[in-house]
Amino acid sequence: MTAEPQSDATAVSVKLNYATRGMKFPNDPEIIRGRVRKLLRNNQYELKETDAVLRIVKEGDVVMELGAGIGYMSTLVATKRAIKSVHSFEANPNLIPYIQSVHAANGVTNATVTNAVLGKRKGKVDFYVRDDLLGSSMTVLEGEIDPPGIKVDVLNTRQVMKDIAPNVLICDIEGAEVDLIPEMDLTGLRAAVIELHPQWIGPEGVNKVFRAFMEAGLAYYHRGSQGKVVCFRSEW
Length: 236
Hints:
28% of the residues lie in helices and 23% in strands. Helix 2 (47-56) runs parallel beside helix 3 (72-80). The protein is α/β, with parallel strands linked by helices. It has helices at 34-41, 47-56, 72-80, 96-105, 157-164, 177-180, 198-215, and strands spanning 11-13, 24-26, 62-66, 85-90, 111-115, 117-119, 123-128, 149-156, 168-171, 191-195, 219-220, 229-233. Helix 6 (177-180) links the parallel strand 9 (168-171) and strand 10 (191-195). It has one domain: Vaccinia Virus protein VP39 (Rossmann fold, 3-Layer(aba) Sandwich), CATH 3.40.50.150. It comes from Sulfitobacter brevis.
């Protein structure tokens, strides 16, 4: 499930640190607002993940991104590295047109975005959409009562990995990494950048994610890791 880019969006340049200069983001007040707008203006948006991604992504890579957000990371790798392609999966259908408009505004032609999540088997899953679109998730937060939910497609993880054959993984899926990462066939990856959410998955969940990568032959890469953003790679 995808949507057409918003051709009438007004693009504004936002200069960012870590060689992300020149990326453009359509001025959509429903998405570029509040904290997101402030971080973009102050050159602070996803700084740790940006640094990590630019350290590990190389020319010719096939990148899989889980949790596309505003299309920042997919645009970053497509414009700052001569990658073969980037394939993004985003659960929130309200973000799909915006992501596509970001790609269009930046002349990105080797990126795809799919409105779906990955899982053990195909089907549907509840996804809770919040006023803060980037805070939407598959989890009911503590204190929430009947949050607005929609059904999102679930695609088989192993089949998608087989079809795309990525060698780099970027993942920021609000705690769902604890269940998804161990289900993935990680053996074909050269490197990965994962934003962990220990506040939700706890120490056991963090260990579970680390164990999955280590069993696939990837080691913790300290130079690319900062706080909750951790890198793994198979070469030294």
